[in-house]
Amino acid sequence: MKRIIIIISVIVICIVISITYAYSMYKSDVNQVQKFNNQFSNYINQEFYGNELATIINLAIDNNEKYKIPKDSSGKYIQDELYSIRVDVYMVDTEKTYSMELLNAGQISNLVNNYSNIQFKCTKVEYHKKTKRISYLYIEQIS
């Protein structure tokens, strides 16, 4: 009888430890997603200047490099379902939308020099369905 009680107790303890570990891992994942999204959330529906646009582009490119997101033949990152992020910027003065890769290729320092006093606004955000991480930002020049 004691032996059965000990076996049941060990099984219950293992189940409780497994559930606690799974919950802990879930909370850790949620916190990481929230931390990642918070890097960009300050810019959503807010006005900011060109130097902050450079920061957004650098964060997005760093993220894609960290997760080894592949590029297509034109040098643009290929969207995946988990970790990729894309940023497009609409410039009023040229009436064109530029990808972050194109702006980065033109050197971020040039972007900061030419657009540091120009205001921008992030008007569209998309999220990955599986991970709930930000997957796309559409930014418009407003002045």
Notes on the protein architecture:
50% of the residues lie in helices and 21% in strands. The chain has two domains: 1-39; 42-141, no CATH class. Helix 2 (50-66) packs antiparallel against helix 4 (108-115). By secondary structure, it is α+β, with helices and mostly antiparallel strands. It has a five-stranded mixed sheet. It has four helices and five strands; from the N terminus they run H-E-H-E-E-H-H-E-E. The chain is elongated and about 85 Å long.
Q: What strand line-up does the widest sheet have? A: 1-4-5-2-3
- For the termini, the CA-CA separation is 80 Å
Task: Give the structural class.
Answer: alpha+beta
Mean pLDDT: 89
- Helix content, binned percent: 40-55%
DSSP summary: helix tally: 4
Question: Unreliable stretches, pLDDT < 50, 5 or more residues?
Answer: none
What does the radius of gyration come to? 22 Å
* Biggest sheet features: 5 strands, mixed
Shape: elongated
